[in-house]
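User: Quick sanity check before I run a bigger batch. Here is a single chain. Can you write out its predicted 3D structure?
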Amino acid sequence: MTDDISASAFSPEGPNPSATTDAVGGAPPRPPIPLPDTGPAVRRRADAFTVATWVAWAVFGLVTALAVAVAAGDPTGLPALHGDGLLLVLFLATIVVGSSLRNDDAVTRMSGTTRAGGASRTVDVGATAALALSVTTGLGHAGWGSPWIALGVSAVGLVVGGILASRSVTPAGWSPVWWHAAPRLVTVVVLSAILAGVGATHPFRAAFGAVPPQVGALALLTVVYAVLILEAPLRAEATRPARGARRTVHAAALAESITLGIVPASTAVLVAVAQPLLGLPALPLILLPLMFNQFAIRRRDEMREHARQSVVALSHLPEAMGMVRPGHAARVADLSTRIGREIGLGRRELAEIERAALLHDLGQVRLERPVPSGATVLAAPADQEGIAADGAAIARATGVLDVEADLIEAQALPYRLHVSHRRPQPVASRVIRVANAYDDLLTGRSAGLPLADPDAALERLYLGLGHEYDPRVVGVLDTLVHGVSGAGGGPGPERRT
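Assistant: Done. Predicted structure follows.
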């Protein structure tokens, strides 16, 4: 990832962790433990959005029940809702409830502003339903025919569902919703126009009907998938990336379209092809599994976030006891994940390195004589290893941080032991060692610390190159400090180094 981080972002102006800025998004990183406003007005607003979301789901359930009833033989006696009108209402309700399931982390994930191991990448059900509407319209399986009707229904559904997901009542809070919906609306119009053809000849429809159904469905899937991949630049620009990060954001958007795009593409084609056979129930029948999958993934992300907050709370223990400078663990974790992204660590590895970096000084709570200002970079090697071993023992005692405990224990080892094959040191541990030393040199308060500026800290690290610190990691840190693009790219594939 090519984060544009200036040297001033690592200036020794005190221990405030917000001194490190997120250059891609232009905002400080999220605080370890957010303190949201929980006043009566905020609670009432949250309750109102909850009620509105439940109302949307109730409408979706009612319309789905009507669709099933009509398909079963019209026991409802509501002929005005038959056919295309009910189908259009069903698409609108599905887009609204599907968009309300969207996690707002998805809006900022490509810009790199989410934390390591943030919300899981999932398919936007509302956007998928809008795509299915455009394909159904383009193939002429709906009586309205005009792509502008599909555009209007998609726009209303995506915006209303996005507002429910954002839980914002101000126009400023709706801005990300508009930017998130715009690329898919462009895709709806383009895809409807391609499938419907120009004029009255409808060449694509004619070709689709002239070939075997299997070939036609495969050709349709190819067209939809290609259009979704072409949507990637629009989605990248919709995140309004910061200067210097555009190439990274576009690469992330393209990778997401290639990997996840096949799911909405195949779902949209399946809905359009099944519509003439299954009738009105085709849409909810095919999309409900995606909705249930969203619930399961959201629950898993909530559990991960709870576990992360527990780690954050545990990382504050040395600071609360006065053993370590305030904000040191958060700064080391933030810098470690940035270096890890540049090196190309996978998402799982980035989450592990963040947790291990937060807890890397946990062993200092067992010290009888504290290290001055907690700056272990000046401690004796035996003391460093003792602190790391105690911290690793505490982490292992939790029963769920065994991997992080190994990283904590290995980060105290000098790099020369890894090179000589006497003590293996994972790359994540080497990253934490460099990040910790860098922050100690800039914010420590003893024995000539802090140093004057980031260049002085880097010079000290370069003096230990190959002996204490991994040259590759120090080089990546240098590129980050001076705002030079490093290895680039977002989180790489899941791999172990």
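DSSP finds 21 helices and no strands in the chain.

User: Great, the batch can go ahead then.
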